[in-house]
Amino acid sequence: MKGIFKIDGITSTNPLAVGDNVEIEVENMVENSAVITAIENRKNYINRQSPSHKMHHHIIAANVDQSLLIATLKDPKTSQGFIDRFLVACEAYHVPAVLILNKADLYKKKEMDKYEQWKIMYESIGYKIILASVKERMGVDQINALLQNKVTLLSGHSGVGKSSFINTIFPAIQLKTQNVSGWSGKGLHTTTFAEMYDLELPGGGQIIDTPGIREFGLVDIAKQELSHYFPEMRVRLGNCQFNNCLHTSEPDCAIKKALDEGEIYADRYISYCNILDSIDEKVY
Ligand SMILES: Nc1nc2c(ncn2[C@@H]2O[C@H](COP(=O)(O)OP(=O)(O)OP(=O)(O)O)[C@@H](O)[C@H]2O)c(=O)[nH]1
Ligand SMILES: [Mg+2]
Ligand SMILES: [Zn+2]
């Protein structure tokens, strides 16, 4: 890369991200080397707080058509809080999201009950949720069908099977994967950088494998905006008495009313409150 790029005026730990379209200048024909001279404007991107510098952003990927969040209910366990944070980021950046619950082969009654509960809840909000076992090739064709002609971002904790999924649909790639037995909770972080692969599908398409993420630190979302990124709240916002309602203790709040009437799931509302509490309002 030539010089320093400042994109969208944000401080990013990686100015160039997977999925970026760039202009290059060939430097040396013999060595086949080139320098990146410009990054084209992004259609969208997904970013999160850099785990090492809270003030910096890390762009996970740019120019994506959809994101698949791979979650697991066992080895490792993905919490609803993590899922909801990820969904909020996807809503904020206008990236359609699909939930995959992988490792179904390991699920017993407890996990299956949770899946059934999540299925009803997330589908009522408008998110597709697919039960899968990459190991047993269950759900894989259904996921594959979503990938045609699209740029898809794969995300999730370390060890949930992101790279294994790509290996299953595209045996020619054979990415490194690692057993999670003796799981420490921290993850093995087998994949260390994001990489895009062309899919051998009739309609084309690309898939981006990413390193596992432990926490999803949201950036650039103000408290006032947050409910816009919960689809079930977004449709009801016009009915709150105050247009700056945070839906916590204000009178005549349409969200609290929907919650009381069972039209908004308590677990989603809890996620909302937790995220709301975690947003530090920037002081200008
Ligand atoms: N039982 C079971 N194990 C699976 C399944 N899918 C993947 N695994 C195993 O889970 C372990 C971790 O898989 P990876 O594909 O390396 O996970 P990853 O999400 O790419 O992890 P990072 O690269 O660290 O982010 C491997 O041992 C896989 O064989 C599944 O459906 N069932
Ligand atoms: Mg991996
Ligand atoms: Zn309200």
Entry keywords:
binds guanosine-5'-triphosphate; 6-stranded mixed β-sheet; alpha/beta; binds magnesium ion; two-stranded antiparallel sheet; binds zinc ion
Structure overview:
The chain has 284 residues and is α/β, with parallel strands linked by helices. The protein has helices spanning 80-92, 109-125, 140-147, 162-169, 231-234, 254-260, 266-278; strands spanning 22-28, 33-39, 45-49, 57-62, 66-72, 97-102, 128-131, 151-155, 195-198, 206-209. Helix 1 (80-92) packs across helix 7. The mean pLDDT is 89. Zinc ion binds at residues 240, 245, 247, 250, 253-255.
Mean pLDDT: 89
Strand content: 15-25%
Helix percentage range = 10-25%
Poorly predicted regions are: none
Order of helices and strands: EEEEEHEHEHEHEEHHH
What is the total tally of β strands? 10
Number of helices: 7
Instruction: Report the sheet with the most strands, covering strand number, pairing sense and barrel closure.
Output: 6 strands, mixed
Q: Which structural category fits the helices and strands? A: alpha/beta
Strand order of the largest sheet: 7-6-5-8-10-9
Can you tell me the overall shape?
globular
